[in-house]
Write a structure and sequence with these properties.
This protein has 355 residues and is an alpha+beta fold. It has ten helices and 15 strands. The longest helix is centred in the last third of the chain and has 25 residues. This is CAP domain-containing protein.
Length: 355
Amino acid sequence: MRLLRSIITLVVIAITIFFFLDKNNVIPREAIDHITLVLDEKKHDVPTKKIPEKIRTDQKLAGDLFHWIGRETDELIEKYGEPERKDRSAYDYEWWVYSNAETKYMQFGVIDNEIKTIFATGTELEIEPFVIGDTYESIDKVLSFSDEVTYNKGLSSYTFQLNDEDVNRRPLAKVTDDLFIQSYFDTFTNRLSSIRILSGDILLQHRPYALQYRGNLPESPDFSEKEWHTIESGMEKQIFDISNVIRQSNEKSLLSWDDTVHEVAYLHSKDMYENNYFSHYGLNGEGLKERLADKDVYYFAAGENIAAQYVDAPAAVEGWLNSEGHREALLSSKYTHLGVGVFRFYYTQNFLTKP
């Protein structure tokens, strides 16, 4: 009997240790990118609310885009045809990209022919009862934004903790036990800019918010240099496409891709990564003017946005949209061309006005 009591006691202690002592704080924060003239971001105060104990079942997310998670790529091809391209991501999935370059842009994250996540922006999305451009308040009424969102998988438990800026700019909503929606807002207009739909596993891979958890976290994939080059090239194209769709949504002209300026931007992102700094000026003191001159680029005007440690290309563009100086460059009417360079998770946009 004593032996049995001892065994039971040990089991209880082990369970207690797992559930109460194995709590870790992970706070992956995106580097706040900056521009030569740094201006304060505009903030909107949003009341903090807790997620209800039971997931709401009366949400009327009728839009077709909300119902693709878990479906097969054969259905996707039947609906939209073959993708414009397939971009490898920095995670376990591959992006299937669909875009008309102006009013609709969609990325479907695919693993083993199954759709696991979606990012989309543009004015012609099937996201009823929402549309891009809806107010924060109207979407909050349906999704009930909160500063804490939980995800449970087996015995593991994860709580995503959103600060005020997160709740304002990119709130997270739990729709079902394994379906989440990130709503990206333009905080200067307080309106929906883009949307991301994702499963719990993908959300854990991204870890875009502070996280408290007990259990295990997925390991980051280990890519070769060749694989990273493919990933980076995909992100560059995504940033270019998304930037143009956002410009179109804001009634701005489309930008043209410039290969030489892309190279300038890429080399700056690579230099920042390899030399562990984050600035518009290299360690040699040279800025965009000197970098463009080195490549014999002729222009009337130029501007630059940089970012670091955003989870992917869509998140980086949304970050620029919500920073006053970067937004000015992203939506400027004077620019005609854009070159994008990505190295690992360092992102550079170079804008030009050319003859």
